[in-house]
Amino acid sequence: MTEREYGKLVQDMAPKSPIVKDCINAFWIGGLICAIGQLIMNGYTALGLDETNAATAMSMTLVVLSALLTGLSLYDDIAKHAGAGTLVPITGFANAIASPAVEFKTENWINGVGSKMFIIAGPVIVYGVAASVVYGFIYWLTTVL
Fold first, then answer.
1. What contacts 64, CB < 8 A, 6 or more positions away?
2. Residue 98 · residue 119 · CB < 8 Å
3. Is residue 54 part of a domain?
4. Which H or E run includes 124?
5. DSSP tag of 108
6. Which long-range contacts (CB under 8 A, 24 or more apart) does 57-62 make?
7. 89: left (phi over 0), alpha (psi -120 to 50) or beta
8. How many other CB atoms sit within 10 Å of the CB of residue 11?
9. What is the three-state SS of 66-107?
10. Contact (CB, 8 A) for 85 and 34
11. Is 117 within the bounds of a domain?
C-alpha cells in the first residue's frame, strides 16, 4: 500500500466533522456567554458602578465563574458542545489556567498546581505582554517624534 493510498483510506475511515453544526453551537453558546456577561455588567451598573468599573467587575465575575465551572468539571461538558464558542471569550482563558491546576493537583501545590497552572496560558501571557510593550514603544515613538 502506498502512502497516498493509506492517506485516502484514513480519510475515508475517519468520522466526518459536522462543521455546520459545530459552527452554529460555537456561535450561540459563545453569544450566550457574552449575553450573560452583558447582563452581569448591567447588574453592576445598576448597583452604581460606572461603565469602566462595571466592565472590570463583569470580567472578574466571568473569570471566577469559569474557574468554578472548570473545578466542578462542568466547563468541559459545555466546551464539548460549544467548541471555540467557549474559548474565545475571557472564560476560555480562565479555563486554560484552571484546567491544568485541577489536573495536576495530585502532584502537590508547588510541582503540580504552581508549575503546571500556566502550561497552556503562559505563552499567551508572555507574548501578550511582549507585544504590548512593543506596541506601546511604537506608539510612544510616533507620538513623541
1. 94
2. no
3. yes
4. helix 122-144
5. -
6. 59/90, 62/33, 62/36, 62/37, 62/89, 62/90, 62/91, 62/94
7. beta
8. 8
9. HHHHHHCCCHHHHHHHHHHHCCCCHHHHHHHHHHHHHHCHHH
10. no
11. no
Specify the pLDDT at position 113: 60
Domain assignment of residue 94, yes or no? yes
> What is the structure's pLDDT at 10?
87
Q: What's the CA gap between 139 and 120, in Å, rounded? A: 29
- Structurally, the chain folds into a number of domains equal to 1
Does 14 map to a domain?
A: yes
Contact between 81 and 72 (Cβ < 8 Å): no
Q: Give pLDDT, residue 15.
A: 82
Amino acid 86: pLDDT: 82
- The predicted pLDDT at position 128 comes to 79
Low-confidence ranges of the chain (pLDDT < 70): 103-118, 120-121
Domain holding 13, by residue range, is 3-103
Confidence at residue 56, expressed as pLDDT on a 0 to 100 scale:
94
> Rg (Cα) of the chain, in Å, rounded?
21
Please identify which residue in the block is written with the cell numbers 456577561: 37
H or E element in which residue 138 lies:
helix 122-144
Of 28, 26, 98, the closest CA to residue 62 belongs to: 98
Q: Looking at this protein, which amino acid is placed at residue 40?
A: I
pLDDT of residue 1: 79
